[in-house]
Design goal:
9-stranded mixed beta sheet; alpha/beta; DHOase/Allantoinase_Hydrolase; DHOase_cat; 5-stranded parallel beta sheet; pyrimidine biosynthesis; 13 helices; Urease, subunit C, domain 1; TIM Barrel; Dihydroorotase; binds zinc ion; binds N-carbamoyl-L-aspartate; 2 domains; globular
């Protein structure tokens, strides 16, 4: 007698456009893309004993699962704002299959123990791969380097280090971090903010801040740190990643550094691609974020920098905050806005619908490059037979009015509330298992 085989579910996606190209069929089975094109339907028939789900992919675009290089999941410590479970459900709903979890939790992710805990909780939740980012300095205190090597050697295999929320301001510490991380091909991701130039800052320093009377955060406070850091990276030969770059001057500095051969990458957020400091006139703290929303000229320069490859990645900087931390006057409110469930739509509107980007470019900045920078081997892969079935199926023709109450994030601080945005995630697959099925979050049994 032969033992009964457990049926597995295979998915035949018909008429889908990989990276926006010619429609074809994809068979997803055993965690991988089992067949592509004319073979897929035949291969599906040959799989006796499997459950087969046929997904009508007409009009849908297939992309590699999105990878966020900059997410705040708030666990441990601020589970009232987000948890690893709610944050990764939010990620899956937005088409993400991996998120890098920032270290500014409580306790701070500055030891092997904390990063392993975050990594395990992500694995158990099962909605997206959670890649912990390790703090550069103990407690984000900016005074002593954390145990970068121990975090790199841990089960979480940390490769990205950041004090995000705080700038690694001491140039000696920044230099050492750039040196030490070379040993394990790590990268130092910098929140570029000169602290003395931004004491008490509430919004971008410019005509709007002067008119409405909020303390300004000058562009130079960001640009001075980026300029210093690219020179330090050049000097020691380390890898630098510039987080949430937001000014025209920052784009110019990164462009200059790349031309010079310096090993630097940069990210821009969806909100810095779409929104401006004019929104602060409402005094609605949903628009309060670090770095602040800048001017229309800065937005244009960030778009141009993304279009010409100066900026490598779009990262959400999803920064959920509990109601009481946002539902107050501007100066008392926390900095940050959510972004996982709207990022792809904003990138479609700003970059694709405007003609600046193809869908292959979208895959590059939201999946391939963030996976490469983060050192993730099985994300951001080509949509070819034998590759992991870690993909998103997206309907670019759908429209929706953003309603934060419907978001899967535990927090509601989306700056796009009430705005109509294009596109909708229909399916997200993580190694062949749907985390989103036909537009709805799918129940997932953790690994
Ligand atoms: N972006 C923000 O405004 N806030 C982030 C910190 C950060 O990314 O600097 C947060 O943790 O809330
Ligand atoms: Zn930051
Ligand atoms: Zn951040």
């Amino acid at each position: 007698m032969t033992a009964p085989t457990t049926p597995t579910t295979a998915y035949l996606v018909t008429g889908v456009s990989p990276l926006g190209g010619e429609p074809t069929d994809l068979l997803l089975a055993d965690g991988v893309i089992a067949a592509v094109g004319a073979d897929a339907a035949g291969a599906a028939k040959d799989r006796d004993g499997d459950d087969l789900v046929v997904v009508d992919g007409t009009g849908l675009i297939a992309l590699p699962g999105l990878v966020d290089l900059h997410t705040h999941l708030r666990e441990p410590g601020r589970e009232d704002a987000e948890t690893i479970l709610t944050g990764t459900r939010s990620a899956a709903a937005g088409g993400f299959t991996a998120v890098h979890a920032m270290a500014n939790t409580s306790p701070v992710a500055d030891t092997a123990g904390v990063v392993e805990q975050v990594w395990r909780l992500g694995r158990d939740a099962g909605y997206a791969d959670v890649i912990p980012v390790g703090a550069v300095t103990v407690g984000l205190g900016g005074e002593r380097l954390a145990e970068l090597g121990a975090m790199a050697d841990s089960a979480a295999r940390v490769r990205v280090f950041s004090d995000d929320g705080k700038c690694v301001h001491d140039p000696v510490l920044m230099r050492r971090a750039l040196e030490y991380t070379k040993a394990f091909d790590g990268v130092v991701a910098q929140h570029a903010q000169e602290p003395r130039l931004t004491e008490g800052s509430q919004m971008h320093e410019g005509t709007v801040s002067a008119e409405i009377g909020l303390a300004g955060w000058p562009a130079v406070a960001e640009e001075a740190i980026i300029a210093r850091d690219v020179l330090l990276a050049e000097h020691v030969g380390g890898r630098l990643h510039v987080q949430h770059l937001s000014t025209a001057g920052s784009v110019e500095i990164v462009r200059w550094a790349k031309e010079r051969g310096i090993d630097v990458t940069a990210e821009a957020t969806p909100h810095h691609l779409l929104l401006t400091d004019e929104l602060a006139r409402s005094y609605d703290p949903v628009y309060k974020v670090n770095p602040p929303l800048r001017t229309a000229e800065d937005v244009a320069a960030v778009r141009a920098g993304l279009a010409d490859g100066t900026i490598d990645v779009v990262a959400t900087d999803h920064a959920p905050h509990a109601l009481q931390d946002k539902d107050c006057e501007w100066s008392a409110a926390a900095f940050g806005m959510t972004g996982l469930e709207t990022a792809l739509s904003v990138v479609q509107q700003v970059m694709v619908d405007s003609g600046l980007f193809t869908w292959a470019d979208v895959a590059r900045v939201l999946s391939v490059e963030p996976a490469r920078i983060g050192g993730l081997a099985d994300h951001g892969r080509p949509l070819e037979a034998g590759e992991p079935a870690t993909i998103v199926l997206y309907d670019p023709a759908a429209r929706r009015t953003v309603a934060p109450a419907e978001h899967h994030s535990r927090s509601r601080n989306s700056p796009y509330a009430g705005l109509e945005l294009p596109g909708r995630v229909r399916w997200t697959f993580l190694r062949g298992r749907p985390t989103v099925a036909d537009g709805e979050l799918a129940p997932v049994a953790g690994a």
